[in-house]
Amino acid sequence: MIVLATTFVFMVLLGAFTFIYQLFRLVALDAESRGLKHPNFWGIFSLSGNGGGGLLLYLIGRNKYPSNMTDSSRREFDSRKKRVGLALSFIAIGTIGLIYISLFGNL
Fold first, then answer.
1. pLDDT in tens for each of the 107 residues of the chain?
2. 8: domain range?
3. Which of 53, 61, 80, 103 is the most buried (most CB within 10 A)?
């Protein structure tokens, strides 16, 4: 049972770290395509704040700048969005597994 619990914890952590990195890259890529200065700063800024406040401020502030994303950047952007979905799936499956083990592990 402990091996299964460890596996689910690893899935949640792997999903969380992957989600954070992919979100950082998505925002940096978007900021770069809009011509904002220091796109990596915007990527880190979007991760700040409890409850996604940094991401919300970035999404509101970016509307002043039109996007000039190239086809290769668009493909990378779409690929990273799919990776975000996969990371969220890992988090969900790991969390459901941990809840199941905590509720029914002693049966």
1. 899 999 999 999 999 999 999 999 999 999 999 999 999 999 999 998 788 899 999 999 998 999 899 999 999 999 999 999 999 999 999 999 999 999 987 65
2. 2-104
3. 80
